[in-house]
Amino acid sequence: MKVAIVTKRLDEVAADALVVGLYAAEKTLPDALVRLDRAAGGHLKAALEAESFKAKAGQVMHVHTGKSRVVVAGLGPRAEMTLEVLRRGAAAALRRARDLGARTVAAEVLGDRLPAPQRAQALVEGALLGTYTFDRYKKEKPERAVEELRIVDAEARHGREIEEGARRGEVFARATAYARDLINAPANELSPSDLARAAVQLAKERRLAIQVHDRAECSRMGMGAFLGVAAGSAEAPKFIHLTYAAPGRGKRRVALIGKGVTFDSGGLDLKNSEGMQRMKNDMAGAAAVLGIMGALPQLRLPVEVHGLIAATENMPSGTAVRPGDVLRAMNGTTIEVGNTDAEGRLTLADALCYAAARVKPDEVIDLATLTGACVIALGPLCAGLMANDQALAKRLLDAGELAGERLWQLPLIDEYREHLKSEVADLNNVGPRGGGAINAGLFLKEFAGDLPWAHLDIAGPAWSEKDLPLVPKGASGTAVRTILTYLAG
After folding, report:
1. 171 contacts: CB under 8 Å, gap ≥ 6
2. Is the pLDDT of residue 95 over 70?
3. Which of 105, 207, 354, 421 is the most exposed place for a label (fewest CB within 10 A)?
4. In 361-479, which ranges are continuous DSSP H helix?
């Protein structure tokens, strides 16, 4: 979908569908609707009354008015409007326009209570995310698709701000869609080597620095935890290091680590068939990191960012790591494998060690579909946040609020550190079932050391089993927009 800015009134724009917002319980129609109603001979207002349209948030209706269709997006009560309401309203309106066969859609910048650039960004994000489809493997492609979104800036007072907001929204949404594409791809077409090739291609297109370390190089660096997970798979592991260098001197250096298990069978502690069904999405953290890294050069943010991914499969075989085996991480810490299905934290442990030793960042954030326990605690719509630095946690929570991606902070309870004790090694990779997400966070905290560190357990929202306002069934690309918002702050 192409995005363009048009400096005309909505009723003057030629398009297959026109989108206008309407607040709930308002006595008068907005100017754009009044003009469109006048041009339609009063038919638009009559249709709104006949349908008893309440303009609830997310509600849409359409009216045919001669040459085009008018899609009215409900925004809910004016006092309760948020950026997420605007995103969802735009998504619903664009889907309705698409389903009506519209190829071109013109929309005013919905809402009026928030700054124009934020509203323009929300409009574009909603439009692009809400109409995302993944049809790579289907013979029959959808016939209906919106080809161009024309954002109307009638008064041209905020032209530059609206253009910048729309552009940022497009970058954020396309980065999210890139992550969704990777996650939705089947594991037979996205091995660790394929993920590394995607990273190399991204680096070439966006002019990022990249290093891809193979098994031998990882062994020389002492990444015994990561390579222990990789031992059971015929697919070669890859450790990916992307670097974005800010124009001029970056304000701070950030390491982003994404869990990159391209398929998780559970290893010798094999999952059942239902538990394995969606395990192609166990690299959602890695996909998010790649989406973020690809967006940074377009945004030209003044921060140095290192994207790290330990990519592997977790498979059962005669060479697979066994329960009770002891692995040695890059920093020398020994780990007893209490369960081979708690593999993600082993790969992240060596990635954290690598960040501390090779990157030396000011702060480090990891993104991982880490535990089913977090899904039990927070459900499928909210990610868990744990951190050893409360200021970092607060900034991430604020960024998630702006991005419309739910985060909830879980405590790192020091007493639970006892759960990770091993009789034969420094740590065990699992603890008791209770507090499983926190136990995993405490395990990772051991390898973050003194670095300000935050962990996002995205196991719940990384994949949706049903259509949501901004996410069709499948991969969500969660955390891409939150981290971009954070880095831009």
Report:
1. 295, 298, 299, 484
2. yes
3. 207
4. 372-378, 390-403, 436-448
Tokens of 422: 């091993």
- The percent of residues in the chain predicted with pLDDT above 90, rounded, is 89
Residue 156 has pLDDT above 90, yes or no: no
Q: Band of the pLDDT at 248, cuts 50, 70, 90?
A: confident
Instruction: Name the DSSP letter for residue 356.
Output: I
CATH no. of 175-488: 3.40.630.10
Q: Delimit the domains of the chain by residue range.
A: 2-154, 175-488
Report d(CA 37, CA 3) in Å as an integer.
26
Task: Tell me which amino acid residue 71 is.
Answer: V
Distances from the Cα of 418 to the Cα of 347, 421, 433, 485, angstroms? 22, 6, 14, 36
Dihedrals phi, psi of 389, to nearest 5 degrees: -140, 110
d(CA 277, CA 291): 24
Amino acid at 443: F
Q: Identify the band that residue 250 occupies on the pLDDT scale cut at 50, 70 and 90.
A: low
Q: If one looks up domain 2-154 in CATH, what number appears?
A: 3.40.220.10
Q: Minimal CA–CA distance to 454: which of 371, 393, 381?
A: 393
Catalytically annotated residues: 271, 345
Q: Averaging pLDDT over each range in 24-33, 110-119, 337-346, which range is the top one?
A: 337-346
The total number of residues shown for the chain amounts to 489
pLDDT digits (tens, 9 = 90+) for 206-215: 999 999 999 9
Q: Is 219 helix (H, G, I), strand (E, B) or coil?
A: helix
Token pair in block for residue 285: 């953290």
What ranges in 159-220 are assigned the alpha helix state H?
A: 159-184, 192-206, 215-220
> Residue 442: its pLDDT value, please?
98
Name residue, tokens 């609206």: 162
pTM of the model: 0.96
Three-state SS at 334: strand
CA-based Rg of the chain, rounded to a whole angstrom?
A: 24
